[in-house]
Amino acid sequence: MTSGTESGQSIAPGFSGPDQPEWDVYSKCIRCGLCLNQCPTYRELGVEMDSPRGRIYQMVLVAEGRLPLGESFVRHIDLCLDCRACETACPSGVEYGKLVEAARAQIVQHYPRPWQERLLRRLAFHYLLPNPMILRLAAALLRFSQNSGLQEMARRSGLLQEFPRLAEVEPLAPAMESPSFFPQIGKVFPARRNRRFRVAFHAGCIANVAFARLQEATVRVLQANGCEVVVPRGQICCGALHVHAGLRDEARSLARRNIEVFLREPVDAILTNAAGCGSTLKEYGYLLRDDPVWRERAAAFDARMKDVTEFLAEIGLTQTMRPLPGTVTYQDSCHLAHGQRVRQQPRSLLQSVPGLRLVEMPLADLCCGSAGIYNVTETRLAMQLLRNKMEAVNGTGAQTVATANPGCILQLRAGVKLYGNGQRVAHVVELLDQANVRD
Fold first, then answer.
1. Residues near 95 by Cβ (< 8 Å), separated by ≥ 6?
2. Distance from first CA to last CA of the chain, Å, rounded?
3. pLDDT at residue 5 tops 60
4. 221 pLDDT exceeds 90?
5. 29, 109, 297 from 18: Cα distances, Å
6. What is the pLDDT of residue 160?
7. Rounded Cα gap, residues 40 and 362, in angstroms
8. Is the per-residue pLDDT at 10 higher than 60?
């Protein structure tokens, strides 16, 4: 919004440049407050300005020129998890995720963060995530540290305590898996028995080095259910973390690359096993809505995009399964439940496994604190959310915690180590793969 009116009054623009919070979106907020109890930060902090309603009000004030886009505004926006639970609760249909991501784009354009933070963001978002070669090198170095004992030595020596922030986030570092999934990109995996569908798999970025076994399990489950799986060469990071951080131009560049690569393939669906990625992948059309060259292609991409659990539930499982005796509880990934409105499908897949009993946890769709890189940037609040989540998990007595997002898996595994009872944490498709009777 560069200018506008409210009740006939002129609104002085406080935001400027591209990617501003849109009046048509935030004007739907009727300030009823139904979002407050669904907001993890409001539940923890009890501060109105750290609720969706409060943050929208601050956006209005900035847009009207009554609040500077300064430290206070930035802090309240930074504290938002962008979990979108408020969207599920909102009776007016406010698409809050679009607002907070646009507000962060404005912060990137107009608010000078400390140089150390700018440097780290540039290294992560500009060099690491979009560059498979650099990502593989970084993963190799981290894997060496983990496998050689250097990481454990640093823990035991107390060296990490000299660097408090590093000590806070170090337990969240994923184990680097070998071999990575990168060599499988560019391959086609045939369906087992009769081919029912041909699908393309978006493998992402960090998952290829930290969740390579999950990637392989995803391909096997799709094959077992009659899918030929193509993993297109040239695909790249989806841009979800860039969108959440306000780096929309970078996200658009990644989106164009993925659209070009995936639309070459004659497939029935484009799939991801990462809920956080899927939410952004399904919104490429919105991201590129003002691009006359790409918007139609982006809409075509969106129409084919599905979460793997959503797709498997839709086509019906045909794999032969062995019993998996035990109990499982399901943690809704925020960007699957709230961002994509996919809730029952993962549960129905779990209930289809012989011998596996699903036990619902309280507040299953309340954020675990992962939220992209939130557990790194806002570690203390993220860990409090994780503690609350593990209390709910422990209360179910379940032996396994299932979810549908790699980021949630990392967070929940840390939660099991810190507050749990030795539960296994697994992706839904990993349990389907474990139950699958292979030819």
1. 25, 87
2. 58
3. no
4. yes
5. 22, 9, 22
6. 63
7. 14
8. no
Nearest to 113 by CA among 52, 50, 69: 69
- CB proximity list for 29: less than 8 A, separation 6 or greater: 53, 56, 90, 92, 94
Q: What is the 3-state secondary structure (H, E, C) of the chain?
A: CCCEEECCEEECCCCCCCCCCCHHHHCCCCCCCCCHHHCHHHHHHCCHHHCHHHHHHHHHHHHCCCCCCCHHHHHHHHCCCCCCHHHHHCCCCCCHHHHHHHHHHHHHHHCCCCHHHHHHHHHHHHHHCCCHHHHHHHHHHHHHHHHHCHHHHHHHHCHHHHCHHHHHHHHHCCCCCCCCCHHHCCCEECCCCCCCEEEEECCCCCHHHHCHHHHHHHHHHHHHCCEEEECCCCCCCCCHHHHHCCCHHHHHHHHHHHHHHHCCCCCCEEEECCHHHHHHHCCHHHHCCCCCCCHHHHHHHHHHEEEHHHHHHHHCCCCCECCCCEEEEECCCHHHHCCCCCCHHHHHHHHCCCCEEECCCCCCCCCCCCCCCHHHHCHHHHHHHHHHHHHHHHHHCCCEEEECCHHHHHHHHHHHHHHCCCCEEEEHHHHHHHHECCC
Which residues are CB-contacts of 361 (< 8 A; sequence separation ≥ 6)?
Answer: 329, 330, 331, 392, 393, 395, 396, 398
Helix, strand, coil shares of the chain, percent, nearest 5, are 55, 10, 35
Q: Which of 339, 348, 276 is nearest to 311 (CA)?
A: 348
Q: Strand 188-189 vs strand 227-230: parallel, antiparallel, or unpaired?
A: antiparallel
Token duo for residue 365: 């769709």
27 is written with which tokens?
A: 């004007």
Tens of pLDDT along 293-328? Answer: 999 999 999 999 999 999 999 999 999 999 999 999
CB 205 within 8 A of CB 135: yes
Q: Cα separation of 6 and 406, whole Å?
A: 43
What are the tens digits of pLDDT across the range 337-395?
999 999 999 999 999 999 999 999 999 999 999 999 899 899 999 999 999 999 999 99
* The amino acid at 150: L
Please name each of the domains of the chain with its CATH number. 4-110 (1.10.1060.10), 115-172 (no CATH), 182-313 (3.40.50), 320-435 (3.40.50.10700)
| Tokens, residue 99 | 């607002």
